[in-house]
Amino acid sequence: MSSPTISVLMPVKNARKFLHDAIAGVLAQTYRDFELLLIDDGSDDDSLAICQGYAQSDRRISVLQNQMPGIANTLNYGLALAKGRYMARVDADDVCVVDRFKRQIAVLEANPDIAVVGASAWVIDGQGVEIGVLKPPTNTAQIRLQLLSTNCVIHPTVMARLVVVQGIGGYRPVFEGCEDYDLWLRITSIADILNLGDMLLYYRMHDGQVSWQRTEQRIFSELAATRCAIDRHLEQCVDLDKLTVIDRDTLLAIGLKPAEIAKALQVRSIGTVLDAIRFQQYQTAQSLLAQLQGQCAMPFKRGLACSLLRLYLGLRSYFRV
């Protein structure tokens, strides 16, 4: 097979429930010049067998088995073997709109200053029922500014220039839970990122998905990513290449104060709970709220306490407890 234009990276870990739909969404694309790299991350269900079955019927599909666990390592393994000019990201529980690749590649080929193109998305639940929308900002300047406080690029909607992603070092595993966010922040130092207003993905939210897990660790990583983006010299204070995880000590070493860390943990955790409720992930919201109430080391400020109380009462009514 000659080198394809697009390398589609789909990490797979215990994804059998939604994997058929995700792969079908890629194979149905109107833009056909791609390779699909299905990268197994140590699945213990029959996900690997499903992937191998598809590979036998379509020469564009390759099945890889990552030996270093974790989403960042899995994606980097795919990046190292990708042959395309562009990288497209798809998760194993999401579904692409049929002309997604066609629309995104047109933007990248017409705008050499843009390195990453994301998109808006419909949100669906575990049964495929639409439960909301995600509409990130579409102006490159606004994206650059907003990224300094929050991730406004939907990872599985992204198509990017492979040479840029590889050249900047790919995903950094130390930024667990926000490895994509850290990547966008580094890319904006050398190129633009654009989000299309077009709805190009059905983004699935369900109680078991990875993005709901290890909220505290994700928040620590987000705080480090934003602080280092503002001042790259801070990375020398902690030597990120030698760290396996970002913790409170890491944040203190790059200049955050204990009260700042505690406040950010509370505010961002509440935001995560609100997102879970917004998209009807009530079991997840209840679990996250219990974790939040148990882990905070300092008293809540009055406004935060009121927010938590409203959340608690709302959850009581949802679960009738």
Helical content class = 40-55%
Number of strands: 9
Low-confidence segments: 297-302
Distance between the termini: 59 Å
Q: Rg from C-alpha positions?
A: 20 Å
Determine the structural class based on helices, strands and strand pairing: alpha/beta
> Averaged pLDDT, please?
89
General shape: globular
Strand content: 15-25%
Q: What order do the SSEs take from the amino end to the carboxyl end, as H and E?
A: EHEHEHEEHEEHEHHEHHHHHH
| Structure annotation, total helices | 13
Largest sheet: 9 strands, mixed
Any overview of this molecule?
The chain is an alpha/beta fold and 321 residues long. The protein has helices spanning 16-27, 47-57, 71-81, 100-110, 140-146, 162-167, 179-187, 215-230, 235-238, 248-253, 258-278, 282-295, 302-319, and strands at 6-12, 34-40, 61-65, 86-89, 95-96, 114-124, 130-134, 159-161, 192-204. Strands 1, 2, 3, 4, 5, 6, 7, 8 and 9 form a 9-stranded mixed beta sheet that branches. β2, α2 and β3 form a beta-alpha-beta unit. α7 packs parallel to α8 (215-230) and α12 runs antiparallel to α13. The longest helix has 21 residues, at 258-278. The model is unreliable at 297-302 (pLDDT under 50).
